[in-house]
């Protein structure tokens, strides 16, 4: 969840440096009027220091956000450099990766991709899963970029499956069961465009099956489904620590089974 905060600091001090002493001392004056300075989290905010000489210079007290906190889901997210979005035609292009012979791809977005991937790993006939980002405007985004909400990517699982052993409808059944398709850009406490519901197809047959499946689900639910059904676009594989995250133990080191047909409850964060 990305939170934008506008903060202001009220200051009543100016710092004066005396040039008449051998070791300059910082003298705080309390006689100046109060004024407000904006605190920016994306660029430095210079504060003017008044010197006894005629010179005036700007000094920045800006500290960049801590990347480690961002990766853990805390702190503020910096906005990606707009210049890094200049290759958006690549991001908006089709997925040019090729599945294994006789296999097919589909991309499914149903909230945080960790639990969705594990559920799909357990489906008989699924031969490979990868988590990543798609449907955005930025070429080669990072997890931090996606979390800003400005790149418009979605967290998805790209599933490779053998249609002889796994029907497309069985994948859709898992998809619908793993999330609430009626909440826009949100799954539980996970809020943002990267958590939207989406089916991203590679063939006309998949598109038709997805539309029919959505219509069946709509008859079951009493709220409007907001799942988007769109052609698959460029898939950007997520950082390695995201791959098979729950199978490897998640946050707490408790590995979860990927055995085909396994019905063990999925602990979404490990």
UniProtKB/TrEMBL annotation:
GO biological process: cellular response to oxidative stress
Pfam families in the cross-refs: PMSR
Superkingdom as given in the UniProt entry: Eukaryota
Any one GO MF annotation of this record: peptide-methionine (S)-S-oxide reductase activity
Domain Peptide methionine sulphoxide reductase MsrA: 107-248
InterPro entries: Met_Sox_Rdtase_MsrA_dom, Met_Sox_Rdtase_MsrA_sf, MsrA_MetSO_reductase
Keywords: Oxidoreductase
GO cellular component terms, semicolon-separated: cytoplasm
Name of the protein in its database record: peptide-methionine (S)-S-oxide reductase
Enzyme Commission number(s): 1.8.4.11
Recorded family membership: Belongs to the MsrA Met sulfoxide reductase family.
Catalytically driven reaction(s): [thioredoxin]-disulfide + L-methionine + H2O = L-methionine (S)-S-oxide + [thioredoxin]-dithiol; L-methionyl-[protein] + [thioredoxin]-disulfide + H2O = L-methionyl-(S)-S-oxide-[protein] + [thioredoxin]-dithiol
